[in-house]
Request: fold
Amino acid sequence: MLVTVFASGSKGNVTLIQINDKKILIDLGMNYKYLCESLSSYNLLPSDITHVLITHGHKDHVGALPVFVKKNNPIIYVTEGIIEEVECLKDYDNISLEDKEFHIDEDIVIKTFNTSHDAKGSRGYIINYKDKDMVYVTDTGYINQRIIPKITNKQLYIFESNHDIEMLMHGRYPSWLKQRVSSDVGHLSNGQAGTYLSKVIGDRTKKVVLAHLSEENNTPEIALDTVKSYLKENDVSFKNIICAKQFDNLEIKL
Reply:
């Protein structure tokens, strides 16, 4: 399983997962040109993508989708709520409505869980391939405690660490936007990310990638320092934590 974060942040989000002949994208939040250029670095074309998982319908997660579905025909997994919000999916034929668990061939199992965001049908993912597994969760104001056991002790976490709460509250955003970002249907702060990660990191965990960092209200240094401090406070000894960036490819092999 080769996981590459092509883009992560407020301007767009795209992650590629390669498992044998299956090429899976999580979200298409950048423009189509950026997607093509990113795929070409792995000698891939957009037509090589076999499956697409969409977390929710906000533009920074589906920006390239209208062009993509005109030119390519992968299986796209979505919820009914996402179809309601994303116009280009309403006439797209190769759609599979997500269930709590579905298979991409015999060995790739994908489980979904609800996220708390101001978008219909928003989802996070647990992806299993034989003895490999990962969790992908961004764009959520909190994580329901019932989900914690399901996402515990996985090998890889791509995990939202969107904002530093002090930077957000003292920054340039208008009051309504500050309230939205920090609400239960907004985004996880660095502190929240650290709290949740301290609960789910286990002895199988190899790497944590902090994702969807705000350019306005966060920095990689602050995100890393905050998350690590929360882990230390909760007696979790884990140091293999890095930040995904808005434009640079980040590759993780499991």
Q: What stands out?
A: The two ends are 5 Å apart (CA to CA). The longest helix spans residues 220-233. DSSP finds eight helices and 14 strands in the chain.
